Amino acid sequence: MKxxxxxxxxxxxxxxAVGPAHGVDGSKPLxxxxxxxxxxxxxxxxxxxxxxxxxxxxxxxxxxxDEIQSRLQSEGIDIGGIEQLPGRCPGLYMIQNSAxxxxxxxxxxxxxxxxxxxxAGTQREAVKSRLRExxxxxxxxxxxxxxxxxxxxxxLDFLREFxxxxxxxxFDSNYRSRLWDSVEVARDVVxxxxxxxxxxxxxFEDEQALWADTRPAQSLKRNCRxxxxxxxxxxxxxxxxxxxxxxxxxxxxxxxxxxxDTTGAGxxxxxxxxxxxxxxxxPLASIAEGNRYAAQVxxxxxxxxxxxENPVHAMENSPVARTVADTAV
Length: 329
Ligand code: ADP
Fold this sequence. Notes:
The protein is of the alpha/beta class.
């Protein structure tokens, strides 16, 4: 099975130590540099499961873009779908820790080459040829938010063709309001892409922010009406909901004794879920895999666990799922 993930990888600068942004003498903490991005994080964990993964994006021709490509290759991820734009460099973001332990993100990504994904003038026909070889394409609302409107239409048309030929599309709405012109535009775009989605991996918090839902049942109903056949709703430590074949099930999230940092929880859940699904596991067993991947990741600081500390385990048995009524959620 082959999966391609579409999106943006950024340079990340994070404080080395947890604590307030300023030292007592006004000094700033040392920063650790790495790379991250929602679909990138998911791609890394899927690749670690042994599924063949390609990452599709645009980068520049600077040393950081080269490092990102080496980083992907070191994870066994195919980079043949990456185009390098001359004179450009990747987006950047910084993390700040406030005194109360919250994390704040500041982005410099307006000029990111990834914004040219599927745009006219790029090598998008070559990218489409590669994508036609895939079994599954994974993208997120962040991927869509940074793309140009005409490029989104081009991608939508391509996904229609891809699904028509038997390919599957997995989508996480990952709604980030500041990346969109307005909530109305975000809703319209997400709705269009839902029509071309086979597996929706949503977080209820994002559904609340995008649609003002107050209960999971509202999200489930709307996505069901949009024609989503397989819908997974993540809710932090609350049971994960699965709506499939008109049936709603809940799978408990095993307690994690020490939650260190929830960055990348949803991304790694998606990786566990998709890796298992692509290897033939049932949706319920795949949720258990998603939970297991996320549990590991939230026990570490940062979105990506160092490779040496991230052993691949054999899949566990199917979890016990409960059938629930939508009035219960
Ligand atoms: P996101 O990272 O997109 O906000 P969630 O917070 O819903 O996503 O978390 C995704 C998954 O991570 C959950 O379904 C669960 O498996 C795991 N997870 C998140 N928070 C916790 C927690 N406090 N305890 C145990 N598991 C958690």
